[in-house]
Prior knowledge:
Layout: E1 2-10, E2 15-24, E3 27-31, E4 40-43, E5 48-51, E6 53-58, E7 60-61, E8 64-65, H1 70-78, E9 82-87, H2 95-109, E10 115-121, H3 144-154, E11 158-163, H4 170-180, E12 185-188, H5 195-199, E13 207-208, H6 229-235, E14 240-244, H7 254-264, E15 269-272, E16 292-294, E17 300-303, H8 307-318, H9 322-336, E18 354-357, E19 363-368, E20 371-372
Parallel strand pairs: 1-4, 1-5, 6-9, 9-10, 10-11, 11-12, 12-13, 13-14, 14-15
Antiparallel strand pairs: 1-2, 2-3, 5-18, 7-8, 16-17, 18-19, 19-20
Helix pairs in contact: 2-3, 3-4, 8-9
Amino acid sequence: MLAIQNARLVLENEVLENAVLLIEHDKIVAIGADVPTDAEIIDAKGAYVGPGFVDIHVHGGGGYTTVENPLQMAEFFLKHGTTTILLTPDYCLNFEEFLSAIRKGKAAMEHSKSIAGFYMEGPYMNPKYGAAAEFNPWRHPLDEKEYTALVDEAGGHAKVWAVAPEREGLTPFLHYAKKVNPNVLFAVGHSEAIPDEIRALPYHPDLQTHCTNATGRVNERGGCRGTGPDEYCYLDDEMYAELISDSHAIHVKPEIQKLILKVKGIDRVILITDGTGDEHPSPPEYAHVDDLNFDWKGALSGSRLTMNKACRNVMKHTGCSIVDAFRMASRNPARVLGMDSDIGTIEVGKKANLVFVDESFNIQRVMLEGKMV
């Protein structure tokens, strides 16, 4: 039995001051109970203790990538509080590289308690959008042999497939992905689809991939502003909006972050890092920003964020509370994945995946299934 004392416990709707949390094996067994005499005491020393972060969209970080070293990448993010992570292969991989990334990821899952599956960002998105778009090899029509091989290799480990609804021939792929994994989610990503194209999908989209990033809209005649994936997501009460919140709000301006939170509501926004392994130099105008990545030509290419920093940033840019930040970084992603009976909030019976932070989200300790990392 472990007893965490002197904690500012971040629950789903409140912060419980000077709280006690009891853990037995890998589960939370009591909140605010008397401490058994034989319990091992962990003094939180007034730290905020919240649910471990759930990052559903990340390509790399700490010098590691999903494609080359997924296990080391997951361990890097675990040290920064991400106790559940989805590996995200790069959308510009060719067919064989995609298969290799999936195989390496599945091998890493056998040795990691934090890797929960894949977020398949592509390959069937709009190749006009995203960093290094000119190198995207997926401009050809959908090939049944290719997509069945990819879907079969990923199997039930593919939690999300991000697609552009405007791609021709997409429907057979979606049906096959659902056949192989009935619980798979679909995200609208790297797209300029008009609302009618999104509504025409055979399955309701669950997510929008990094809202307002790598999206476009086809403007109407007469100078009227068109509508695209962002506007569709704003108006669809069931869709979740992924949000990248970097320190200088380069991905999403503060006003847009506030708009997303206001329109979607805290319960339908998911913080992601979109961490990448790019190591190209920053353009001079962004030399002072340390949590962004760029491609070879200086275009924005994901981030160097960890989730604790994303939480700090979204609080700064929007004025949301620490409870709200944990909802967006832990509860909401666990909920959309259907994993919220085990993770995402601090409740009796759930896994003891915890992160200890100060008021600025600096990491003090991380617990994974009842054991300190």
